[in-house]
Amino acid sequence: MGSATTQARARVGAVLGDASGIDLAVARELFQAARLLGSTPALAGALADPAAAPAARSQVVSDVFGRVFSANAVQLLTSAATVRWSSEEDFVEGVEELAIRAAAVAEPDVDLEGELFAFARTVAENPELELALGSRFGEASAKGELIEKLLGGRASASTVLVVSSIAQQSADRRIRQALSWAMGIAAAQRGRVVASVVSATALTPAQAERLRQALAAKYGTEISLNTVIDPTIVGGLRVQIADDVIDASISAKLADLRQRLAG
């Protein structure tokens, strides 16, 4: 990611933080815009062209989206189109990120990261589902309909929207990778980071809260805790936050001991 994109994401995120009236309809429109931009290189190129004046790019947003999208969605798209991005691809991804953030804002009481994590686990445990959602040959709309059937009534509206939208977005990425990316964005929008915890047995609420507090103190931010039960680690915990891995599992300690003995 280039420095221009880093600055663009920060500026667009600030605009979203100051905006009012952000609901799921706005998030849905932003996802639709991301899909259109991803499938229309000429449009994405025009809006991401650093040589074009911001006023000209703003006019393109108005001409293309002004009559069909809400004023809030157009305002957010304009904010994204009038800053500089490192590449056209970064711009399209930036609009999709904006949509995910809008979904998180729209339903602040929903555990969006947790529900995305739960669906990611479902995908990991069902290779046929992962293949269906990740195939480049499947119709985007069919993927969206499949998500609606799987999650409708079982997850929040914001989760259904985010999962169905990222499954439809034409990008060279795996669905689990995309879900993990979305989890991180949703957590960041709420001032948290995601911690994935592998435990041999389920943590009690008290244990989970103590772990959350310890990680929050270590990393200096709020923590969204996602737990996976894996008896093969025998005991202890394995925690991953971004690229940091804290492996205090018994299986890891045994493996280390075997390696030292073989040494």
TrEMBL record:
UniProt main location, coarse: membrane
Annotated compartments: Cell membrane; Membrane
InterPro entries: ATPase_OSCP/dsu
Membrane topology: Peripheral membrane protein
Lineage top rank: taxon: Bacteria
Keyword Disulfide bond annotated: no
UniProt xrefs under Pfam families: OSCP
Alphabetized UniProt keyword annotations: ATP synthesis, Cell membrane, CF(1), Hydrogen ion transport, Ion transport, Membrane, Transport
Known role: F(1)F(0) ATP synthase produces ATP from ADP in the presence of a proton or sodium gradient. F-type ATPases consist of two structural domains, F(1) containing the extramembraneous catalytic core and F(0) containing the membrane proton channel, linked together by a central stalk and a peripheral stalk. During catalysis, ATP synthesis in the catalytic domain of F(1) is coupled via a rotary mechanism of the central stalk subunits to proton translocation. This protein is part of the stalk that links CF(0) to CF(1). It either transmits conformational changes from CF(0) to CF(1) or is implicated in proton conduction.
HAMAP family: ATP_synth_delta_bact (MF_01416)
Family statement drawn from the similarity comment of this UniProt entry: Belongs to the ATPase delta chain family.
Protein name: ATP synthase subunit delta
Organism: Microbacterium binotii
Organism lineage: Bacteria, Bacillati, Actinomycetota, Actinomycetes, Micrococcales
Gene symbol of the encoding locus: atpH
